Amino acid sequence: MVRSGVIAVGVLGLFLSLAACARGRPVTGRGGVRAITQEEIQASDARDALELIQMIRPVWLAGSLLGDPTDPTVQGGPTVLINDIPPKPLFSLQFLPLEDIREIQYLTRTYAETRFRVGARNGLILVLTLSPVNPGDSIRPDTGAVFRTLAPPEPRRTFSPNG
């Protein structure tokens, strides 16, 4: 009798602790996917994608016991994909402007490894932008600018000193 009362108090304490940590925003999700919608992005005071996640869903950045949600340079956080393009470092989210983002999804380890076939030991953050980014494109980590892959120029067949 006493033991079940102690367990009930422990469960209630855990529930109240988790409820106190919640931000009061709904978490949308399908299976192993959780999302930050464009409405949440627009309503946020964050300056970039990393700050947005730190404010709204800090648990996404925890990753493992070695990770630190306040320091994106610490190893052990989730894998980051931008529009299904191969993994980017977590700090690249600092340079991704919010006005370019349609949705940010968090995928659990199992779901991410099944869908993308990447090692996502601590989950995966998938950023979907408003403008598509092609696999050959590159994203500058300092500005978030997308550079399109262009076809190489046609070689000149003759050389003339006058142009």
Task: Describe this structure as you would to a colleague.
There is one protein chain. The chain is built from 5 helices and 8 strands, in the order αββαααβββαβββ. 28% of the residues lie in helices and 20% in strands. It is elongated. The protein has a single domain (27-147), classed as Ferric Hydroxamate Uptake Protein, Chain A, domain 1, CATH 2.170.130. By secondary structure, it is an alpha+beta fold. It has helices at residues 2-21, 38-43, 49-56, 59-62, 109-116; strands at 28-30, 33-36, 79-82, 85-88, 101-107, 124-129, 138-139, 146-147. Strand 3 and strand 4 (85-88) form a beta hairpin. It starts with a helix and ends in a 16-residue tail after the last strand. Residues 14-28 have low confidence and may be disordered. The strands form 2 sheets. Strands 1-2-5-6-3-4 form a 6-stranded mixed beta sheet.
